[in-house]
Write a structure and sequence with these properties.
Length: 368
């Protein structure tokens, strides 16, 4: 725990030159600085601020989801079923929390002023960037300029710290990531990029995704691993949420094959295996004809639920199809990511084939 006591200007018994005296105008920036020292990170600051915002606005959340709505919810549940109704309510609460966070302006903890304060404390004093013909050097001030810029809007010319008269386009030396330039040890850059990418695309990806005895359910966005001979295969479940419930008889689930292409390949999903190995998975919606189906039976609640099972390598969450074939749970995509994958798949499978003039086809693909 860290307690900071600040005083207003003109407080009795306190010298105005003291570092604990802060003017009203300077208070927001000082709070940002102290908060940055508390959690020592921009990303963690947002997480802590989000928790604080939810706690401060708990009464608003409870007021929106009052007990007087219980009869209406139960009526909805009667017509739509338990599983879908439960999921709906959870998503409504999650959406309402997002509204609270927007109202509390949680994003200010990663605003330009917060980034500037972070950069003063944590950016390397100097970094070297190897290029084809020479080695470039950036000082902290230039690095801060880089991270505060809108780098996606074309080239970004910066000065070489060792040769101030020379400028160069940093984007030519960092086409995919500048993470390695922002840390003392550039070798950890790819690891940090991987971890952040995993955070953005996966809702769950650890050996114990739920507390207690709960286990993952098979639905859209679930990634599983099976075997064909000695080879591991990875599949993405493409069954819509509405078809993943009320399963009273065996039902065929569609799966899209994923290919582990390694860090140098073209991938759109990253995940850890239960054995803590990294996966770089390629999703190719154009190959919609590669979709495979495996049939599963629902449990008493009408869903396909995984079971904790001992398999080679240890205990895993496993889905068993009707033939007894095991499919090990690997991860769950975030809701929007799963939806986008299914949308891409649907768009690819519904495109219209047409015989047309080669002249027209080439003309339509010209760049303006």
């Amino acid at each position: 725990m860290r307690v900071v006591i600040l005083s207003k200007e003109g407080s009795l018994g306190i010298d105005d030159a003291s570092t604990s005296v802060v003017s009203e105008d300077a208070l927001p920036e000082r709070l940002l600085r102290e908060f940055a020292h508390l959690t020592a990170g921009l990303v963690s600051n947002v997480a802590v601020a989000a928790l604080a915002a939810v706690r401060q606005n708990a009464h608003r959340l409870i007021a929106r989801f009052g007990k007087e709505l219980d009869p209406a919810f139960l009526s909805h549940r009667f017509y739509e079923g338990g599983g879908e109704s439960e999921e709906l309510l959870v998503r409504l609460v999650a959406d309402e929390i997002k509204t609270l966070l927007d109202g509390a302006d949680v994003r200010r903890w990663v605003s330009s002023s917060a980034v500037s304060l972070w950069g003063e404390s944590y950016l390397p004093s100097k970094v070297t960037i190897p290029s084809k013909k020479t080695v470039r050097t950036l000082d902290r001030e230039t690095l801060l300029k880089v991270v505060l810029s809108d780098g996606h809007q074309g080239p970004l010319q910066v000065n070489d710290a060792e040769k101030p008269a020379e400028t160069f386009d940093i984007k030519k030396n960092a086409k995919e990531s500048i993470t390695a330039f922002l840390v003392d040890d550039p070798k950890v850059g790819p690891d940090l990029d991987y971890d952040f990418a995993r955070l953005t695309c996966l809702a769950r990806n650890d050996p114990h995704p739920f507390p207690g005895d709960r286990s993952p359910v098979l639905t859209e966005g679930i990634i599983v691993r099976g075997r064909e001979g000695r080879k591991s295969i990875y599949l993405l479940c493409a069954m819509p949420l509405c078809d993943s419930v009320r399963i009273d008889t065996a039902r065929a689930f569609p799966f899209v094959p994923l290919k582990d292409v390694g860090p140098g390949g073209s991938f759109s999903i990253v995940a850890d295996t239960p054995e803590e190995e990294r996966l770089y998975l390629s999703f190719t919606p154009k190959n919609h004809y590669d979709i495979v189906r495996h049939t599963f039976a629902g449990d008493a609640s009408g869903v396909v639920r995984s079971k904790r099972s001992q398999v080679p390598g240890g205990e895993r969450f496993v889905f068993y199809d009707v033939s007894g074939r095991p499919w090990i749970w690997i991860a769950e995509l975030r809701f929007q990511h799963a939806h986008r994958k299914l949308h891409e798949l649907g768009a690819a499978s519904s495109r219209v084939g047409l015989d047309e003039s080669y002249f027209l086809r080439k003309a339509a693909n010209r760049t303006q």
